[in-house]
């Protein structure tokens, strides 16, 4: 099941971020950055983001979970940041992460559909995202669903300069029209 997250999901999303970042970025991001992903800080951050979602009509935070409520992935999207707008377009998928144990089963695709459809409902017709340059698995996924390589830059994460590449969709209708079902793991 994929649904819009609410404030009660802050602990689950914080745990997912800590786990999925350590899975995805081991060897790609500096170890001190990954070691610094403390759950209390992540929990406060997600609680604030989920409160902000209530007042920001463009912000969408989605969680993917099993029928019994086990969180498997999450995604966030909204209006593109000023820093990204020239390259990405109107909308931006800020984060999309799925537990490594559940990748390759259609869950990332379903989260991308939720984000693209959310952005379109908000009147944001083009968009994209940034990916850590060495994250080949994520890059291959975004290319497989029609993402076009549109540029690169360096992002600052807690004082570290991280090379990232941008993928974009000139018309999010193309992405939103992809077929996908929320996979079942029962």
Task: Tell me what the structure shows.
This is Mycothiol acetyltransferase. InterPro entries: Acyl_CoA_acyltransferase, Bact_Acetyltransf, GNAT_dom. Residues 1-179 form the N-acetyltransferase domain. It is an enzyme of class 2 (transferase). Keywords: Acyltransferase, Transferase. The protein is of the alpha+beta class and 186 residues long. It has one domain (2-176): Gcn5-related N-acetyltransferase (GNAT) (Aminopeptidase). 40% of the residues lie in helices and 28% in strands. It contains seven helices and seven strands. A seven-stranded mixed sheet has the order 1-2-3-4-5-7-6, with helices on both faces. Helix 5 (107-121) links the parallel strand 4 and strand 5 (127-132). The longest helix is centred in the first third of the chain and has 17 residues, at 39-55.
């Amino acid at each position: 099941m994929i649904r819009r997250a609410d404030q009660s999901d802050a602990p689950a999303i914080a745990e997912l971020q800590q786990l999925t970042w350590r899975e995805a970025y081991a060897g790609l991001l500096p170890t001190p950055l990954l070691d610094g992903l403390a759950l209390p800080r992540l929990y406060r951050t997600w609680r604030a983001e989920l409160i902000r979602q209530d007042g920001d009509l463009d912000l969408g935070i989605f969680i993917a979970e099993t029928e019994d409520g086990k969180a498997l992935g999450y995604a966030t999207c909204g209006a593109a940041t000023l820093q990204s707008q020239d390259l990405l377009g109107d909308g931006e998928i800020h984060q999309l992460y799925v537990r490594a144990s559940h990748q390759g089963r259609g869950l990332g695709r379903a989260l991308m559909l939720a984000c693209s459809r959310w952005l379109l409902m908000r009147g944001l017709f083009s968009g994209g995202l940034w990916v850590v340059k060495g994250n080949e698995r994520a890059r291959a996924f975004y290319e497989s669903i029609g993402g076009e390589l549109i540029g690169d830059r360096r992002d600052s994460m807690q004082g570290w300069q991280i090379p990232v590449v941008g993928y974009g969709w000139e018309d999010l209708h193309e992405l939103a029209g992809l077929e996908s079902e929320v996979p079942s793991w029962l």
